[in-house]
Write a structure and sequence with these properties.
The protein is α/β, with parallel strands linked by helices and 407 residues long. The chain is 44% helix and 17% strand. It contains 16 helices and 14 strands. Bound molecules: pyridoxal-5'-phosphate.
């Protein structure tokens, strides 16, 4: 009998055409050289341009800090490039243990456990704690890794409207018989606003559910010593038994830690598949992260600088009538509506020397394409002013495409 399966090449081609029609193609840009906020970026049609980067997550400006880079170099010279094994075999070096202790001390929690990435850590937490009969209640705007994590865990995933604590409570009450987690971003990655953590902690406590906060964008940036959104909300490890902090954003390196109560963290260390079945982070990367954590704790001026830049940008962008979102963090999205509009504005900014990537569905809801502007402590106030002005020009050019074409 002849086999007639759907052809995967044909499917891929159809999907690509669909993305093309919806201005939804996603192409990587090649960074040839980076010096702080300046990036030399390859043009797809040849040659390159130096752009001011306003879309990185290097919030504290630590990724090229001398102390961070030299810690990496020293560790590479001492330990080599790779960890040579999974954490439970031979990949857990002294520097890994030191970083875990430093982060636990920083966050004032009993335990912290290192993962290869925030994505892997989120998969690990939900998979290790939840099974088929359990409930995972999540904010509708949570990061994709948390949604994927719930799907992989096989639990029942229920999403509540953004920041709607009553909605979360309703979901919890509707399944009062099963073990449950409430899961939220601390700072929403594409919107920049904060989760109502204090209220969610109360809802979770009343419903005997476990609250897990993904603080990928809050760590280093918010709270005393940059301890993040949980600390900024005045919550302790009893209220938030587990939280995620990532090292690839404000800490300028790579990897992530899950921090919190010892029984839960120790359970993850022994059972989490994304930790067991992968090679541990390279020691030089961990050494770099450790240096960055120490700087993040100490350098308050970096957080103050971010607040100044954010307030300055908002004031100027509002004067230009740009459509901002209610965010006080260094994530300042400018709403563009359609995908085509977001792409046109991003291209216009690039022509003027700025790099701000267009963020489109499915990363954000349909009709809410945006330019996700981000600041780092390495930006200058004058650069932020100039960006706000360039955004207004980009909006006007996108609204009037003829002069845009002729420009
Ligand atoms: C909210 C959130 N959680 C998790 C992640 C994943 O972290 P990582 O880049 O370390 O995999 C990201 C970023 O990509 C994020 O924005």
């Amino acid at each position: 009998m002849a086999v007639e399966r759907p052809d995967l090449h044909a499917r891929v081609a159809t999907r690509r055409e669909q993305r093309e029609a919806e201005s939804g193609r996603r192409l990587r840009r090649e960074v040839l050289r980076r010096d702080g906020v300046r990036c030399e970026v390859a043009n797809p049609e040849g040659g390159s341009r130096t752009l001011l980067n306003f879309c990185s997550n290097d919030y504290l400006g630590l990724s090229q800090h001398f102390a961070v880079v030299s810690a990496l170099q020293d560790a590479a010279a001492r330990d080599g490039a790779g960890s040579t094994g999974s954490q439970l075999v031979c990949g857990h070096h002294a520097v890994h243990a030191e970083l875990e202790r430093e982060v636990a001390d920083w966050l004032e929690v009993p335990r912290a456990l290192l993962f290869d990435s925030g994505y892997a850590a989120n998969l690990a937490v939900l998979q290790a704690l939840l099974g088929d009969d359990d409930l995972c209640v999540q904010d509708r705007l949570n990061h994709a890794s948390l949604i994927d994590a719930a799907r992989l865990a096989g639990c029942r995933l229920r999403r509540y409207p953004h920041a709607d604590v009553e909605g979360a409570l309703r979901q919890l009450r509707s399944m009062a018989e099963c073990a449950a987690m409430v899961v939220t971003d601390g700072v929403f990655s594409m919107d920049g606003d904060l989760a109502p953590l204090r209220e969610l902690a109360i809802a979770a406590r009343v419903q005997q559910a476990l609250l897990y906060v993904d603080d990928a964008h809050g760590i280093g940036v918010l709270g005393a010593e940059g301890r993040g959104s949980v600390a900024a909300a005045g919550l302790d490890p009893v209220a938030v038994p587990l939280r995620l902090v990532t090292l690839g954003k404000a800490l300028g390196s790579h990897g992530a830690l899950v921090a919190g109560e010892p029984d839960l963290v120790d359970h993850l260390a022994e059972t989490a598949r994304p930790l067991l079945y992968t090679t541990a982070l390279p020691p030089p990367v961990v050494a770099a992260a450790l240096a960055a954590v120490r700087l993040a704790r100490r350098d308050h001026w970096r957080r103050e600088r971010l607040q100044e830049l954010t307030a300055r940008f908002r004031a100027r962008a509002e004067r230009h009538g740009l459509q901002l979102m209610p965010s006080d963090t260094p994530i300042q999205p400018v709403l563009c509506g359609s995908n085509a509009n977001a792409l046109a504005m991003s291209a216009s900014l690039e022509r003027d020397g700025y790099w701000v990537a267009a963020i489109r569905p499915p990363t954000v809801p349909e009709g809410q394409a945006r330019l996700r502007v981000t600041f780092t402590a390495a930006h200058e106030p004058a650069q932020v002013d100039a960006l706000a002005d360039a955004l207004a020009v980009a909006r006007d050019r996108a609204a009037d495409p003829l002069p845009n074409r002729m420009a």
